Amino acid sequence: MQKTNTKGSDQSDVEGVSSTSSLLTINDSAFELVAWPSFDFPKNQLSEKVFALQSTRFSPELEKSQSTTESPFGNFNLGLHVNDNAKQVVANRNKLAQFINQTLQSDPLNENSPAETEIQWLEQVHGNAVAEITRVVNHPIVADASITRQKNIALAIMTADCLPILLSDKAGKKIAAIHGGWRPLAANIIKETLDTMHSKPEEVVAWLGPCIGNEAFEVGVEVKNTFIKQGDSFSTAFVKQANGKYLADLHQIAQMQLQSLGVIAVSMLEECTYQNTSKYYSYRKNQVTGRMATIICRR
Questions:
Q1: Is there a contact between 146 and 155 (Cβ–Cβ < 8 Å)?
Q2: Is the separation of the CB atoms in 60 and 26 below 8 Å?
Q3: CA 68/CA 256 separation, integer angstroms
Q4: Contact between residue 31 and residue 163 where contact means Cβ atoms under 8 Å apart
């Protein structure tokens, strides 16, 4: 578990790029706002306590019809590690941060003007390390999940086929973001994150974002066997193909793991990144491509 400090998100690495103070006009296609699962107790007001979104490849400042480009990185790549133009990526990250702050600061439930919320980025390595974030640092933290109990910290996960997972306790006081590739899931990253949150599983709600779907994610038998070791029931998440490989269902695997740990309240955005590359990035389909971000922060 790591505890970290200070400000920014790789901005110091790229000169001449800073966030703009002008008001952003956001097109409706740029971000998917997270729809949390319903639950009975306490009253479901989690969206009033926790703000979360999923980015797409559309620029928030362009109309959907304009959000096409011949570049493999599209209009709103948020990954600095994919050999895109670094200044443009940082500009995109600044726009994302600006949208988050615009949304939070215009919230009528916030009686006082809130401090600026900053995004903590990770260097994801397909492991199961969980970083506890107390203050934001200006470099990516090596981990595949992060949690915070603090306001004014937005946790970010980058994906381009892997499954983004967001967790919150029902009180909206502990939040987490998980990079749910098959390797982190096989290494029990969900359990590691719940253990770090110190929340009772029955008091946690989960959201599963868009990822490569069960009609596109072909894996070898070794991947299936890795999950079968966690329980024979995981075999239902794999469908054998004529070539001897399997189609795997990341949404199902994550939901089964969550339920086995006691997390019952789960909602999903079941869109396939591989089959919907006009909206999302897909590494498996395009190799050279950008990254979306999944963001969660306390209001």
A1: yes
A2: yes
A3: 37
A4: no
Q: Of 84, 96, 21, 85, nearest to 58 (Cα)?
A: 96
The answer to whether 275 touches 251, Cβ cutoff 8 Å, is no
pLDDT the model gives residue 253 = 98
User: Among 236, 186, 189, 241, which residue's Cα sits nearest to residue 215?
Assistant: 241
Cα separation of 144 and 141, whole Å?
9
**List of residues 6+ apart from 271 with CB closer than 8 A:** 210, 213, 279, 280
Q: How far is the C-alpha of 126 from the C-alpha of 156, rounded, in Å?
A: 15
Residue type, 99: F
Which residue type does 151 have?
A: K
Tell me how far apart the alpha carbons of residues 7 and 93 are, in angstroms, rounded to a whole number: 14
Q: How many whole angstroms separate alpha carbon 288 and alpha carbon 149?
A: 36
The hierarchical CATH code for the domain 27-213+262-298 is: 3.60.140.10
What the block records as the tokens of 278 is 């006009």
Rounded to an integer, what distance in angstroms lies between the CA atom of residue 298 and that of residue 195?
20
Tell me the C-alpha distance between 36 and 294, whole Å. Answer: 14
10-residue stretch averages of pLDDT, the chain, 299 residues long: 37 37 64 86 76 93 60 91 95 94 80 80 98 96 98 97 97 97 98 97 97 98 97 98 98 98 96 96 96 97
Amino acid in the structure at residue 226:
T
Q: What is the structure's pLDDT at 25?
A: 62
Sequence length of the chain is 299
* Cα first-last separation, the chain: 24
DSSP conformation class of 231? -
Can you give the residue ranges of every domain in the chain? Answer: 27-213+262-298, 214-248
